[in-house]
């Protein structure tokens, strides 16, 4: 992406998307879900989206505000180290419906922005509308994890006396 290798970028993005779909299908079809998988899979999705968003912003393919909207949609506290601290997987996260739509829309936006240099038609107006739609669904998705009762299940709770329940 950063070296203007657009066909490679599109190909690798498609590969990542297809393998993610296949992984999810296998986990659901043969009931191979794990607690670690419920954390790592969405984290990998967000990592891909974050890296591509930053690269597209650097290359002018997405407005810098896309990075801002992604950041404000993260739940508190908003620290890079806390977000990626794997010693904290004390919860099982169940994707909300809006988060699934949001991921699909993010993939569509990043995919179109990645493919834009090799698409012969002008899709700038489509991308502009999609920027606002994705910003809205990203915020909505973040809020859904905060306000949906069963989206996050604590695996280990500590009681008031400090003992694990």
Can you describe this structure?
There is one protein chain. This protein has one domain. Strands 1-2 form a two-stranded antiparallel sheet. The protein is globular, with a radius of gyration of 18 Å. Helix 2 packs parallel to helix 5 (97-115) and helix 5 packs antiparallel against helix 6. It contains 6 helices and 2 strands, in the order ααααβααβ. It is 62% helix and 4% strand. Residues 69-74 have low confidence and may be disordered. The chain starts with 5 loop residues before the first helix and ends in an 11-residue tail after the last strand. The chain crosses the membrane at residues 6-27, 48-71, 129-147. It is a multi-pass membrane protein. One of its GO terms (molecular function) is cardiolipin synthase (CMP-forming). Its main location: membrane.
What layout of secondary structure does this protein have?
Elements: H1 6-29, H2 35-58, H3 65-72, H4 80-83, E1 91-93, H5 97-115, H6 124-147, E2 152-154
Helix pairs in contact: 1-5, 2-5, 3-6, 5-6
